[in-house]
Amino acid sequence: MKKLLFSLSFIIAFAAAAVSQNGYEITVNFKNNKDTTMYLVKYTWDQQYIVDTCKKVKSGLVVFKGKKPLDKGVYTLVSQEKSIYFDFFVNETQKFGINTDMTDIVNTLKSVGSKENENFFSYIKYITNKNQEFGKIRDKSKGMSKADSINFITTKYKELNDGVKKFDADFMNKVKGTFVYDVLNLKTEKDAVNVPKASNGRPDSVYQYYYYKSHYFDGIDFKDDRIIRTPFFNKRIKKYYEGVIVQHPDTVIAEIDKVLARCNKDSLIYNSLVVYFTYKYEQSKIMGFDKVFVHMADKYITNGASKKLGYSPETIQKIKERVDILRGLLLEAKVSELYMIDTTYAKQVKKMGFDTCKSSKSVTDLYYKNLEKLTPMFKTLYQVKAKYTVLVFWASDCGHCQTELPKLQEGLKELNGKIDYKVYAVQTKDDYEEWRKFIIDKKIGFINVFDPIHLNNLKERFDIYSTPVIYVLDKDKRIKGKRLSAEQTAGMLKMLEGVQ
Fold first, then answer.
1. What residue spans define the domains of the chain?
2. Cα separations (Å) of 326 from 49, 351, 460?
3. Mean pLDDT of all residues in 353-362
4. Which of 137, 188, 299, 321 is at 20 to 30 A from 461, Cα to Cα?
5. Tens digits of residue pLDDT in 241-267
6. What backbone phi and psi angles, to 5 degrees, belong to 364?
7. The domain made up of 341-497 is a member of CATH 3.40.30.10
8. For residues 213 and 241, is the Cβ–Cβ distance under 8 A?
9. What is the distance between the alpha carbons of residues 412 and 470, in angstroms, rounded to a whole number?
10. Residue 341: exposure state from Cβ atoms within 10 A (0-12, 13-18, ≥19)
11. For 99-140, how does the pLDDT look when each residue is reduced to its tens digit (9 = 90+)?
């Protein structure tokens, strides 16, 4: 039995409309079972939800009964210890029985009044027994020589595998057009047959890949919400987007749009996928994949999002604000100018009194009052002339920064004379003395600047929620790399320049 984890949170606020008013009644006669409580549990995406509880199980007799029909899909019977016993179908027929015996649950499963479950149970009986045969083959090879053992196992595996493939194909042909077919099709791999040979005489792997990719979703009806209430749909989606297609944001965006175009807008599947992809790529740690999040928000959420997505107006506004920040920080985006003060002028600026200002108006007034003096003190980002600019945001009181800044400087030394680069290091705090001491003590030879006038709104413009944050810009100040570690920065410059 598999352990089941129950979640109290829902992916989306969506409920399927009932198509029948006759209710449901599912009776399970579970011989030799000692439970006194059992749960009827529904699959939805990658979660399982309790939809009914039988608290009076006696002699293995379990009855789930309700006045409203159940959502159509795959359900599972769960023990009082929260372990799964077996799966079954709830579809058009919502009044049926199931008989089984605790001593051999799978092989004693019988359906009463549900043809779909009768077919499904016959399938899992066959597959379960063949899996057990696979497990016994290795035991039978014990005592043989290594060569004989390999030959025996290989031959037996092939015999069993060929038999399973034939059974699977025959079974799928038998149940084609039914919901059982639709569910099992979700876990069926569409591998190429009669693969042509490549120039090296081996099966053409390129042909195999493109066949597999182009047929991956064959037979899957994205307009049928029942398939999301199965244990296989979420796995098939995740595998495709994480392991089948090329991991590039533009490719992912195109493939997401293709799948969502196959769904009915505002359906359970459509809304679940929108929420899943939005969250997945907003949380992605892979550089550049925030572009997918921006696309999802722009196309499916902030532009007249459906209320059925479950997002409140306040949440949508927050998503929009987040996207507006990230949009200007996507790879290849050109960053805006930074007006910073060089360390050389820090004491002079401090005497002007910006640190004592109590409001934005007082800062503005003081700024224009001292503009003539301030102008020559600025060391702006666009004044940095180099093929590459390493833009670093750090704080002198940040322990991680104190480790990373010297490490960054040391790592970049090997590029001196090989790659035209400069480091523009922005102190995000106002503590001049601590900052100055660290630079001198650690001999940080970067272009060291800070913003005592608070002109630049650094945290929002550059998404700085922790430090250090490192960007690599090209000569036009376009982002080529971002959120890099000290170790990764030199490697990024080498890659961009083609230096080994």
1. 2-112, 205-327, 341-497
2. 35, 36, 9
3. 80
4. 299
5. 999 999 999 999 999 999 999 999 989
6. -60, -45
7. yes
8. no
9. 13
10. buried
11. 999 999 999 999 999 999 999 999 999 999 988 888 788 777
